[in-house]
Design brief:
By secondary structure, the chain is an alpha/beta fold. 46% of the residues lie in helices and 11% in strands. The two termini are 28 Å apart.
Amino acid sequence: MSEAPRRPFRPVLLIDLDDTLFDHTGTSRDALVRLRDETPWMRALSVEQIQRRYSELLEAAHEQVVRGLVSVDEARLERFRGIGELVGHSVDRAEGAGLVERYQGLYRERRRAIPGATALLRHLHGRVPVAIVTNNRTAEQEEKLAVLGLADYVDALIISESVGVSKPDPAIFRIALEAVDAAPREAVMVGDSWASDVLGARASGIRAVWFNRFRAPRPPGDRSISVAELTSLEPATAVEAMLPRPE
């Protein structure tokens, strides 16, 4: 029996959503600034202190939420309880629920794409398969793409809540590759998180590109790792040049 013909090499872009295509940091900061202005006890803290604590608690709770150990609502309450602890303020359930609701409303109003994100996906659409690989709740991520007008330019959307596994677990990258019928050598993963996107992709045999728009230093133990970096998605051709080429 003759072997089936091997299909031609086809480059594929795997890309993160939050803080790679969608400006989560800027959107969240704007919402927290407004919330701080409206909340007397929060004004004892700088915006940077509030944002840092909020981000830490968001990241720490994600895996528990995905595994069903903590509800989304409880995780959101804990973020504001954690911020209150910085100034010795006890946030009860009623106050916390109000803060969560107000923050979510402010956040939704301020959602925006990273500069160059829309142009990049339009440039690649129909020529290079694009799969978004993201950690978060399914409804939130789908809504972000719809609000930003990016959904029509994406070939596959792999969300941790939907598939039951989060980055940096190699399983989520395998699922993404299967969704676009690609081999690891054909793909590159672009994302802002060193641990989730860069190390996760490398552990899956996928070349990684660190989207380092804030020019953060690499973790001390990983400075010898050879990884390409991008500080901007503009121009689109610069990102396209990072795609794998046949050997």
